[in-house]
Design goal:
With 349 residues, the chain is of the alpha+beta class. The chain has helices at residues 19-22, 30-50, 81-89, 105-115, 125-132, 134-143, 246-265, 303-309, 314-322; strands spanning 2-7, 54-60, 72-76, 94-98, 151-154, 168-172, 182-184, 198-202, 207-216, 219-230, 237-242, 273-281, 291-296, 338-339. The protein folds into three domains: 2-122, Rossmann fold (3-Layer(aba) Sandwich); 129-146 and 205-339, D-amino Acid Aminotransferase, Chain A, domain 1, CATH 3.30.470; 150-203. Strands 13-12-9-10-11-14 form a six-stranded antiparallel sheet, sandwiched between helices. Strands 3-2-1-4 form a four-stranded parallel sheet, sandwiched between helices. Strands 5-8-6-7 form a four-stranded antiparallel sheet, with no helix packed on it. The two termini are 38 Å apart.
């Protein structure tokens, strides 16, 4: 099987015209690039490890990345990322696309490949559009009875409401990771109005976890649950480890399953691929204070830690599930802790 792997940061996105949709001009995008590079390398290495794929990778000519010798590289010049992606996707059996949801970047690339007749191992366009909007996501989850943080949307330029209780967080309605997330503590002055649409929500205390789910014709399978680690102040995502507590893991997986199924019901088109669900597990054993924060319709950074510890290639799991085969749910060892330490500054022009 010929498999194409595209990761926006490493495959030309940071050298293209859409970079201003994701990162403000002059801002430091080192955290975004670090996560992207880690996912890109992990996906490629995992696919090569399987031995059953001819792996093709799109690589930004201005940002070289070390990849295994078996990989066929396609260099991407400045501002040619989407063009090269579409052209390459026509000649392969399947494509994995990893990109920020911000500004519709992920959805646009997946849609472009599908419009050209390529096959993307990703959720349906409707699922992806819903998950990319954080307010639309929590609205759909709440309507399905899935617990979410109390909150509301704010239009671009709308001031912080006086009656909204603190502590709270503000996040862009369309963003990736912790990009643009702000924490407002008790007694702190509210932030200035944002120039783009945002969601504000009550701060939820507890254990931050991410549940990785695999989608295919057989349904949704929660594959692994990872305890997430962030820099102080709920900043950048820096790593994680499997959640060992069986009771907490069961609660998280049930919520993730309900969440993904709730979004899938909104769009009857088939969905395949990897989806991550971010959850806060509260202190109550009955789960009444657990909350689902968001759904990520793509391969998430937990892949970096899970792939080396998996009994078989996780890329193969994605492909097999998309083909309608059963997913092997053997537990991941607690030793597969990982950290993202390649912190190279990447200022955006």
């Amino acid at each position: 099987m010929r498999l194409l792997i595209h990761e926006w940061c490493c495959s030309g996105g940071l050298s293209g015209p859409d970079v201003s949709c994701v990162v403000e001009p002059g801002a430091d995008c080192s955290s975004l690039e670090r996560e992207g590079r880690a996912m890109f390398r992990s996906l490629v290495a995992d696919a090569v490890r399987d031995g059953g794929f001819e792996v093709i990778a799109l690589v930004d000519a201005a940002r070289p990345v070390d990849l295994p010798p078996a990989v066929r590289r396609i260099d991407v010049g400045a501002s040619t990322e989407v063009e090269r992606l579409v052209a390459a996707a026509r000649d392969v059996d399947g494509t994995i696309v990893v990109a920020p949801e911000t500004g519709g970047v992920l959805a646009a690339r997946v849609a472009a490949v599908r419009a050209a007749g390529g096959r993307v191992l990703a959720p349906s366009d409707g699922f992806m559009s819903l998950a990319a909007d954080k307010q639309a996501t929590v609205d759909a989850l709440a309507a399905a009875g899935v617990p979410v943080p109390a909150g509301r949307s704010l239009a671009a330029g709308e001031p912080w409401p006086d009656a909204f209780r603190l502590p709270a967080v503000r996040k862009a309605r369309a963003s990736t990771g912790c990009d643009g997330l702000q924490f407002i503590g008790p007694g702190e002055p509210p932030p200035r109005p944002a120039p783009l649409a945002t969601r504000i929500e009550a701060w939820c205390t507890g254990t931050s976890v991410g549940v990785s789910c695999i989608l295919g014709p057989r349904g949704v399978v929660p594959l692994a649950t990872v305890r997430q680690v962030f820099t102080p102040g709920y900043g950048a995502y820096v790593g994680g480890s499997p959640l060992d507590d069986a009771g907490m893991r069961t609660r998280a997986e049930r919520l993730a399953l309900r969440s993904v199924e709730a979004l899938a019901r909104r769009d009857q088109s088939p969905s395949v691929g990897w989806v991550g669900v971010d959850i806060i597990l509260g202190s109550r054993a009955d789960g009444l204070d657990d909350r689902v924060l968001e759904v990520n319709p793509r391969v998430t950074t937990s892949f970096v830690g899970l792939a080396p510890a998996a009994p078989a290639s996780l890329v193969r799991v994605i492909v097999a599930a998309a083909q309608g085969r059963a997913v092997d749910r053997r537990p991941f060892p607690s030793t597969c802790r990982f950290a993202l330490t390649d912190d190279v500054p990447c200022p955006v022009p």
